[in-house]
Specification:
Low-confidence stretches: 210-216
Helix content: 25-40%
Shape: elongated
Number of helices: 7
CATH superfamily of one domain: Ribosomal protein L4/L1
CATH topology of one domain: Ribosomal Protein L4, Chain: A
Number of strands: 6
Strand content: 5-15%
Amino acid sequence: MNRTVYSIDGRELRNIELDDAVFGLPVNEDVIWYAIQNELANKRLGTASTRDRGEVHGSNAKPYKQKGTGRARRGDKKSPVMVGGGVIFGPKPRDFSYSIPKKAKRLALKTILSLKVQSDILRIVEDFSVESGKTRDLAEILKNFGADERTVIILKDDDGKVKRAGANIPWLSFLSYNRLRAHDLFYGRRVIMLETAAKNLSVFYGAADVNEEAGK
């Protein structure tokens, strides 16, 4: 498919040919959901912890005798029914992370890219950098594309100056073409992709699929 490449001031420059196998797929909602849930699970710290009755401090002795007081039977003060006692079946540190097949992860990312193209949310922009590293200079570029809400910029490499310029913009996130995240990409209201990143994506995911097919 052909897509327009824009200059940093919003003018149309030329057309670029994108791989339909990466940017022209039908939307697969199931695989997108699985990929996003996987990323969210892998980000969980799993550090929540409570103390059971064997871990709280307190005496093991009964507070009063078993019979003759007219009150209910009572065990030690560490009982879960007592204030300050242990917690029944409380959370313990655990690892929530798990993996999904690489093929499913790639399909999810390609499906999201295709969805952004179909929704006319994705804009391909000529390669640029922010030499000054200032937020003001990057904000001027974003303004030309109506980016005033949750926006994702897909870079061709790890450009530290652009990331530094965007560090103070809370609704802006950066992704490298070879390290995409399904969650950030899917929920981005605007997706700005550098021209070289668009070319690299077609090769990166296309080549991965070709190599996988060849290995079967």
